[in-house]
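Tutorial handout. Part one gives the primary structure; part two gives the three-dimensional structure as tokens.
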Amino acid sequence: HKINNSNSNRNLNIYKNIIKTRSLNPREQYYYSRELFDHKKYKKCITEINKFLKQDAWVENKIDALIILSKCYYFLKNYNKQFECLTKSFMFDTPRANVCCYLGDYFILKNDYKTAIYWYTLATKCKNNINGFVEQQYYSYIPHLNLCVCYYHLGDIKKANYHNEKAGQSFETSIVKQNRLFFESIKKST
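Part two.
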């Protein structure tokens, strides 16, 4: 993630000035934490998100805060805390597809493809009933593309190809097209 505008510290400075005069309300605390994350101030972000999580706030913001917290721990290479934050989101509501995909990613990093398959498969079964912003690609494209990767590493080319095609039904990307050509070349060579 990167900051694009030339006055990228504007919002961060606004929050810092507010903090000089009063405490942030939960919504401000949440957005201040997001600004810290966007500025790659991961340790400070962790502190501020933990303050936010102790406050009464909208469930969707709490789940998103835990996702941001997990990403901070990922960038700080504390993978156990990353995992802990992702699973803690289940305390607030049913699993979200993006959280399931992040858990799948966690297990791919450990080369545990069977467990990753569990989480990506669960992501494809999650219901999109969230009140708020939804990253639609986590309900179909991303989990299916990662299932393709997992099954390929486990040597199941048929299932890998199947999930690549399922990903392509959601978004026909260059990755899907490259994978398709790759699987076709495998078929021709056997």
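Part three, for discussion. Residues 59-75 form the longest helix (17 residues). DSSP finds ten helices and no strands in the chain.
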